[in-house]
Amino acid sequence: MNHKHRKTLHALFAHPEPANLAPHDVDAVLVELGADLEERKGAKFAVTLNGHTTNFHHAQHDLNKDEVRAIRKFLEEVGVDPARDYPL
Asked: What's the rounded Cα separation, in Å, for the pair 35 and 14?
């Protein structure tokens, strides 16, 4: 995982949640973690990682705080810990 991906991953877990993460940066991190991204109907996409699947909305601009929280919750559920697995 390159430095830019690590910074984005750590930003997803930061408190307070950032409101300026670009969707394509988060998508790149998810793919780097081994996730499969699948386009769904409308502006949705499915993310499958470590046997878990969830749906997210494709943001047009930067992710809002609720979207960041949802992605962080999903990553926590599948066992991703940036401090342990991907230190800066």
From this structure: 21
Average pLDDT, the chain: 91
Which CATH architecture is the domain 3-85 placed in? 2-Layer Sandwich (3.30)
pTM of the model: 0.89
Peptide bond preceding 87 in cis form (omega within 30 of 0):
no
Question: Residue 56 and residue 54: Cα distance in Å, rounded?
Answer: 7
Residues 6+ apart with CB under 8 A from 24: none
The model's pLDDT over 23-60, given as tens digits with 9 standing for 90+, comes to 999 999 999 999 999 998 888 899 999 999 999 988 77
> Rounded to whole angstroms, how far apart are CA atoms 82 and 28?
15
